Amino acid sequence: MSFPHCSFIGFDPNPDYEKLFVNDLGGKFVQTAVGGKSENNTIFQLQKSGYAKAPETQIRSAAELIETYHGKDEIIDILNIDIEGSEYGIFEEMLKDKIFENICQINVEIHPIWYHNPGYLYSEQKLVVKKFIVHQ
Fold first, then answer.
1. Closest CA to 85 of 128, 133, 48
2. C-alpha dist (Å) from residue 72 to 15, 55, 58, 97
3. pTM confidence score
4. Do residues 73 and 100 touch, judged by C-beta distance below 8 A?
5. Coil vs helix vs strand at 22
6. CA–CA separation, 95 vs 122, rounded Å?
7. What is the pLDDT of residues 102-112, one digit of tens each?
8. What CA–CA distance (Å, rounded) separates 132 from 88?
9. Where are the domains of the chain?
10. What is the phi/psi pair of residue 73, to 5°?
């Protein structure tokens, strides 16, 4: 499949996704975990048998990855986020970091905190999503 007017960049700790981004979409692939801030932490990865806790992994901030691999001032037409519970940290950073002002559309899969334990209480999770949606 070819999309001559689109560029694709995929970030995932699982190297199995490289073929999709490089061969199928003609884009770039960076093997790394994505979160709101750069840190070492435990992540959950989707395996064939379900979700599995991965050993401590280096997580890189979405802002850092966008700046490094796409460009700080470049427009992003569509940003897809499916990062198994770490989306809440990205939401908080999007409200603070100007790099996210260049995103036209966001498609995100929201994961329940009791399933992935992203470090937020349920009440905090709801507040983060509300602030992100209404830009408080």
1. 128
2. 25, 31, 22, 11
3. 0.75
4. no
5. helix
6. 20
7. 888 888 887 77
8. 9
9. 9-134
10. -105, 10
